[in-house]
From TrEMBL:
UniProt xrefs under SMART domains: CoA_binding
Domain spans labelled CoA-binding: 104-205
The keyword Ribonucleoprotein appears for this protein: no
Natural source organism: Microlunatus endophyticus
Role played: Modulates transcription in response to changes in cellular NADH/NAD(+) redox state.
DNA-binding region: 41-80
Record GO cellular component, one term: cytoplasm
Name the record gives this protein: Redox-sensing transcriptional repressor Rex
UniProt gene name: rex
InterPro entries: CoA-bd, NAD(P)-bd_dom_sf, Rex_actinobacterial-type, Rex_DNA-bd_C_dom, Tscrpt_rep_Rex, WH-like_DNA-bd_sf, WH_DNA-bd_sf
Biological process (GO), any one: negative regulation of DNA-templated transcription
Length: 255
């Protein structure tokens, strides 16, 4: 069975033993974002497993290899209408096909990066985009010292030519790695050219029309969350800056 030949029964059995199948795309099924974020992880794991010649895998084995718990994995895959086969597990090839179809990794997504400073250049150089189906089609920056330089074989174009570049390369997704003060203007121009998906790294809130999908990445916020959880363990390495003495606590608890 090849990935382009779906099994007539949809590749698995439901918990009652009946055939399960769903052809609706992700958006219509209301799959949670957290599940959508894990699907590429499952796909990468399945790719490695398939390369090793494995044809079927249990949910427990796949969950271990993907670094999630098996209940989570079964729930995630159930959104695709796939439950595996009792006592056998999942058909690796079919599951690859099914996840690839759902997350669109069978198709290549053209991506544009705006802002080729430290972050934009690092993102452009990240080889993981290519293996996940994202192809960088254009790079834009206003800095004359950068214009014309190549990153991953793509020349940096002048930001002033954004509209031409978008018309020529038809990016489906734009990544913003520009200063916060420039982000809204760049966003407005991208939206006016028809770009409907934007990943914003600039530390500012952006206004976009309802039909535009905007996501923000904030590493500082992620670190703050980790720091918060570290603090909750009670092993804080930093002395609190406000010293509270015993009488203050007694007054507070007396009221
Ligand atoms: N989200 C995160 O976790 C995260 C992490 C690091 C940096 N950032 C943000 O990403 C952005 C880029 O950071 P960096 O370290 O690469 O900065 P940088 O200064 O190295 O790069 C910024 C780039 O934007 C270009 N630029 C300047 N003015 C512009 C304009 N008006 N329009 C478009 N481009 C313009 C510059 O020429 C430069 O190449 C900043 O807003 C920064 O705060 C976010």
């Amino acid at each position: 069975m090849t990935p382009s030949q779906p099994r007539p029964d949809g590749g698995g059995l439901d918990p009652q033993g009946g055939p399960m199948r769903s052809d609706r795309p992700v958006a219509e099924k209301g799959i949670p974002d957290a599940t959508i974020a894990r699907l590429p992880v499952y796909l990468r794991t399945l790719n490695v497993i398939a390369d090793e010649g494995v044809t079927t895998i249990s949910s427990g084995e796949l969950a271990d290899a993907a670094g999630v718990n098996s209940a989570q994995l079964r729930k995630d895959l159930s959104y695709l209408g796939t439950y595996g086969t009792r006592g056998v597990g999942y058909d690796v090839e079919y599951l690859r096909f099914q996840i690839g179809r759902e997350i669109g990794s069978a198709q290549e997504w053209p991506v544009i990066i705006v802002g080729l400073g430290n972050l934009g250049t690092a993102l452009a150089n990240y080889s993981g985009f290519g293996t996940r189906g994202f192809r960088i089609v254009a790079l834009l920056d206003p800095n004359p010292a950068l214009i014309g330089r190549e990153v991953v074989g793509v020349p940096i174009a002048d930001l002033a030519r954004l509209e031409d570049v978008v018309a020529r390369t038809s990016p489906r997704i734009a990544v913003l790695a520009v200063p916060a003060a420039a982000a809204q203007d760049v966003t407005d121009r991208l939206v006016a050219c028809g770009v409907r998906s934007i990943l914003n790294f600039a530390p500012t809130a952006l206004a976009v029309p309802a039909e535009v999908n905007l996501r923000k990445v904030d590493l500082g916020q992620e670190l703050q969350i980790l720091a918060y959880h570290e603090q909750q363990t009670g092993d804080s390495v930093v002395e609190p800056s406000i010293k509270i003495n015993k009488s203050t606590i007694e007054k507070a608890t007396a009221s």
